[in-house]
Each structure stands twice: as C-alpha cells, then as structure tokens.
C-alpha cells in the first residue's frame, strides 16, 4: 500500500501508467458528454469532474424549494470506457459521498481503469442542502453518540433551525433514490453498477427495487438493518457483557480549546467498546483497554471521544434522523421488545431508547406501502459481510440473499464493519468486470485471519503470581525511581542511578544524557507539570545474573500550560545489581504519543 501511494503521489500507477496524463485525456473525452466541469478535490493529485443537478425537494408536487445535488465523477482512465459506471453509496446515514473521493479512487483503482466512478451527495448531506445539528460542547456530543444520551432540547432546537430551510419529512431513502436516478439520466448513463457500504446498502437495495431496469450489478458491503430492536443483540454477538463503574477523564475540547471533563458511565463505556468493535484492528486492543479500566485508568476513552467528534463533523445528523426516524425507529416496535432483545447485553437499551426518544421530536416522512417488503430481483448481487461485525452482521446479508437468486454472499472470517480487505476489493473488481456472481475466484476469503489481540501481562498488584520475586522487586524499583522524581528527591535519584548512567532516544548519539543531566531534566519537569503522574504498564523483565532488562510502556500525565498533558513512551531500562541492590545503568525511550 505504501508503494502504491508513493507512485500515485508522483502520477503513476503500479503498472507504470502515467495517471496524470491519462486522466487528463480521459477528462477531455468524458467532458464531451458529461455536463460537468474540471475541478480538484483534497487528496487527489489530478482533475476530476464536478457539478450540481437541481431536484425538487417535494418530488411529488414538483413545486417549491429545489435542492442542488453535489456530484463528483472520477473519470475512467480508458479512452473507450465501459458505458456502465460505478455509483458509490456511503454510510451513516448522514455521510457525504464526495467527502471520500480520493479514498474511493484508490479503493476502486482497478474498476476505474474501464469505468467512471460517480459520487453524489444524498439530499441532506454534504453540499446537497446538508441538515446538520450542532452540539454546544464536546462533552455533550460524546455522551450523545457514545452513551446514547441525546438531549431532547438539542433535537428540538435543531428541528426548529432546519425547518426554516427544509421539509424534514422529505429526506427519506426512497425519495433520495429517485433523485439519484435523475442524476443517472442527466449524466447519460443507461445502466449502472451500485456499491453500498453499511447504510449505503439500504439505498442500493431501494434503488434496485425502484429502478431495476437501470441496474447492472449490486455490491453490498455489510447489509444494514435500521431497526433499533436489534442494536444490542448485534453488538452482543461480538462481545460478552461488560460491567464498569463511572469514571472521569480530562481532554481538550476541539471546538472551544478548553479542558473539559467527561464522565464515563456504564453506557458510555459500553458504547466505546461497541465503537471499537467496528474495526478488526481496533478490536484487538479491547482486552488492553478493559485491563486499564480495571486498574482505574480510563484515559484510552479519549481516543473514542476524538473519533466520535471526527465522525460528528462528517455526518449530517438531521438527515440521519429524517432517515432513521421513519425507516428505522418505527412506531410498530414496542419498547418492551427492545428491552427483551437487549436483556443481559453489553449495550443495553440506552442507544435504542435515545434514538426512539429523539424521533418522537422529529418530523416523519412517508414511505411507499411496500417499503419493508423484501427486495426481489434477478440482477447479479455480491454481498460481503464480516463475521465479527457488531452493526451489520452476516445474518442481515443472509436475509437479503433469500430473495436475490443471482446473489453470492461471502462471509469474511475475522473481519468487522471495517476494513474492506484487498481480497474483497479484488473479488468485487472481478464481479463488476464480468457482471456475474458466478465463477468468481474467492479463494482468498479463506485466508483471512483475525489480527492477534493485544493482551497485556497482568500487573503485579492484580496478579502477583504472574511474576517471580526478583521480577516484582525490579518492577517496584522502577516505580520507586519515578516516585523520587515526583517528590523532587535529588538525593534518592542519585542513589538509584549509577554514576555511569546514560539515557538515549531516537534523536541520536548527540543527545545522550548523563546522570547529572538526566536528574536536572527530571526535576525541571516535575516543577513544570502539576499533578504529575508517572506510571508503568505492560512490564516485562529479563534477568541475566546481576543484570536485568526491563521493557515497559511508560505514561506521563499531568497539567501544564493550562491544559492536560499525556505522553506515552516505550522504554528499555538496564539495571545492574551491585553490593546487593539494583541500580539503573541505562535507559532508552521512544515516544509513541
């Protein structure tokens, strides 16, 4: 992947094709029939085609307000492209398709050789009359999206603001897919290939139902069910029940720049675990996060908080409510059914209850009478599901496949909601190229493996039997060393460090500190940082007679400059036993955060 990125950065693909020159030629050819203009998008070092197409907000009456739909086409590289492009439908609900142009160009590079890739911001997202709701502070936003505690007053305020420029009942998926078909016709495509991921699978199926004559193939990655009845059940399939007590962490609010305190309740901790389950890579850190929480350290929650805020910045919450409140949180789902399905689960009822409560304040659109009927079609469909996906598990793919006789459902072992592995992308490339789900080379699916869990060794306090007496002695000596720093005890530090002591880091040989320099630096640090905390985690001890090597993750926390400080290091300490006591001979550290 790194090699590919280096090549594209200078204008070449892996096969040596000059993409800048070819793309320019492709644009010139496509411009003759596509009513779009040249433009540049972030992250892509070439021109693409951009434009807008207006549709009536009220498609039934064809009167009143119009919505400009934002469109980006990544043109095919071939001078004679296939007539059927790939339309990419993204998740949320509330994400904007055109926010990911560079990523889609990279992901579908093979398809792009012969086909245009089309991205249209669905009504209510991106630059298509975005329906965004603002949170006043980061703490409220995190609690709303992680713990499921959405303040009703925010929902009411958002509704009042958006109703001034939108009829919130007219942003449903069926209406949006009629928009998409108009765009298809305007761009001059007769048939299209659809790719939908997560919520994007729902628009893909709705488009297939409403406009089957214009669909060549459909690829569904993680079939999405919008019924809150199963939120807790689906999450529980990936992780057993976890109980935690409330805690607090401090972090900087990216909107105000101020230090804020976030309360971590059972619901927010459970929500954080659920978020971590979305990706196979982040899943592997869950045992480590839980172990730290058991020791009273909830700072890893800050990573979830930051990811939540990043997600909020990219989502149109108002559009998401307009979709979910009529297509997902349906009144025919009694709350007692939600409680039954959530009983004994990690997530509980908080998230579903919050959504149902918010939807009680949101305008509800109308759906076609047969909207909830299964989509039946003979169009070739490729369905891709991850076996450890907490939000779009394989069971939903199985349900959809029952009514699609020309479908193939591939279940990717050890894959969660993301990533979209190269193996699956290659299969999709072949599927779109051949236009058939039969005879695909799917052998690589069997080779997918779950990444190993990050399982920290228990601390001596939690499991003394896991360490020998000498190991425990050295671990205690490490902590006494840092406690002497916190006390600003120069005499104790001088006793702990050998006269030959030296510290190195990645800056090189010119930056090695001797004993005196290290002590001066450490005491200066202790004077500058308030509430200084110096802790070790994941410690391993290797003993060679009178010499020992201690490897640890070292965490420095406190406050300085009016805000929180947290630095993490990987350290290697060398201890030497002289006259019956251990002293430090050397330290090497690499900063990881």
Question: How would you describe this protein?
Answer:
The longest helix has 19 residues. The protein contains 21 helices and 17 strands. Helix content is 36%, strand content 22%. It starts with a helix and ends with a strand. Strand 8 and strand 9 form a beta hairpin. A nine-stranded mixed sheet has the order 1-2-3-5-4-6-7-10-11, with helices on both faces. By secondary structure, the protein is α/β, with parallel strands linked by helices.
Label this structure with key terms.
single chain; 6-stranded mixed beta sheet; elongated
Major β-sheet annotation: 9 strands, mixed
> What is the approximate shape?
elongated
Span between N and C termini?
A: 24 Å
Question: What structural category characterises the helix and strand content?
Answer: alpha/beta
Number of helices: 21
Number of beta strands: 17
Low-pLDDT regions: 1-22, 226-232, 234-245
Mean pLDDT: 80
DSSP strand content: 15-25%
Strand order of the largest sheet: 1-2-3-5-4-6-7-10-11
Roughly what percent helix? Answer: 25-40%
Gyration radius from CA atoms, angstroms = 28 Å
């Amino acid at each position: 992947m790194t090699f590919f990125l280096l090549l594209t950065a200078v204008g070449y693909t892996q096969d040596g094709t000059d993409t800048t020159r070819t793309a320019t030629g492709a644009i010139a050819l496509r411009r003759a029939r596509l009513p779009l203009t040249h433009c540049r998008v972030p992250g892509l070092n070439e021109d693409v085609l951009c434009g807008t197409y207006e549709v009536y907000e009220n498609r039934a009456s064809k009167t009143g307000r119009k919505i400009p739909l934002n469109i980006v086409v990544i043109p095919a590289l071939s001078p004679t492209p296939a007539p059927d492009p790939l339309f990419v439908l993204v998740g949320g609900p509330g994400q904007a398709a055109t926010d990911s142009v560079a990523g889609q160009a990279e992901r579908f590079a093979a398809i792009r050789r012969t086909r245009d890739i089309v991205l249209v911001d669905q009504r209510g997202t991106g630059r298509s009359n975005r329906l965004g709701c603002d949170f006043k502070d980061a703490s409220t936003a995190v609690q709303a999206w992680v713990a499921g505690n959405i303040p009703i007053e925010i929902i009411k305020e958002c509704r009042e603001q958006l109703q001034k420029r939108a009829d919130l009942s007219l942003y449903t998926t069926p209406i949006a897919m009629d928009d998409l078909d108009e765009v298809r016709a305007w761009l001059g495509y007769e048939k299209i290939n659809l790719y939908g991921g997560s919520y994007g699978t729902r628009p893909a199926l709705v488009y297939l139902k409403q406009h089957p004559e214009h669909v060549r193939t459909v690829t569904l990655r993680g079939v999405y069910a919008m019924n809150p009845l199963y939120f807790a059940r689906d999450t529980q399939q990936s992780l057993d029940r976890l109980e935690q007590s409330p805690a607090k962490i401090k972090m900087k609010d990216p909107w105000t720049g101020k230090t804020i305190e976030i309360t971590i309740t059972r619901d927010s901790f459970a929500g954080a675990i659920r978020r971590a389950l979305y990706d196979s890579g982040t899943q592997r850190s869950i045992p480590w996060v839980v172990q730290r929480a058991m020791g009273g350290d909830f700072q890893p929650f800050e990573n979830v908080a930051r990811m939540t805020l990043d997600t909020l910045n990219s989502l149109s919450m108002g559009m998401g409510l307009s979709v979910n409140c009529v297509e997902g949180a349906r009144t025919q789902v009694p709350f007692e059914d939600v409680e039954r399905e959530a009983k004994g689960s990690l997530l509980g009822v908080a998230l579903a209850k919050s959504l149902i409560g918010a939807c009680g304040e949101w305008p509800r659109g109308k759906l076609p009478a047969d909207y909830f009927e299964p989509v039946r079609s003979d169009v070739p469909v490729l369905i891709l599901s991850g076996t450890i996906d907490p939000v779009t598990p394989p069971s939903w793919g199985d349900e959809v496949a029952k009514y699609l006789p020309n479908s193939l459902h591939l279940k990717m072992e050890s894959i969660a909601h993301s990533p979209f592995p190269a193996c699956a992308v290659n299969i999709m490339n072949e599927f779109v190229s051949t236009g058939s789900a039969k005879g695909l080379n799917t052998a690589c699916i069997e080779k997918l493996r779950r990444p190993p869990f990050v399982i920290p060794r228990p601390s001596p306090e939690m499991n003394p039997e896991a360490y020998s007496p000498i190991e425990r002695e050295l671990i205690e000596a490490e902590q006494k060393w840092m406690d002497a720093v916190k006390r600003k005890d120069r005499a104790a530090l001088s006793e702990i460090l050998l006269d030959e002591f030296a510290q190195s880091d990645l800056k090189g040989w010119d930056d090695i500190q001797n004993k005196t320099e290290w002590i001066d630096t450490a005491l200066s640090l202790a004077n500058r940082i308030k509430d200084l905390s110096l802790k070790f985690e994941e410690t391993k001890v290797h003993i060679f007679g009178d010499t020992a090597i201690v490897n640890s993750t070292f965490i420095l926390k406190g406050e300085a400059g009016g805000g929180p400080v947290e630095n993490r290091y990987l350290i290697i300490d060398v201890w030497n036993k002289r006259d019956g006591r251990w002293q430090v001979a050397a330290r090497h550290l690499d900063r990881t955060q």
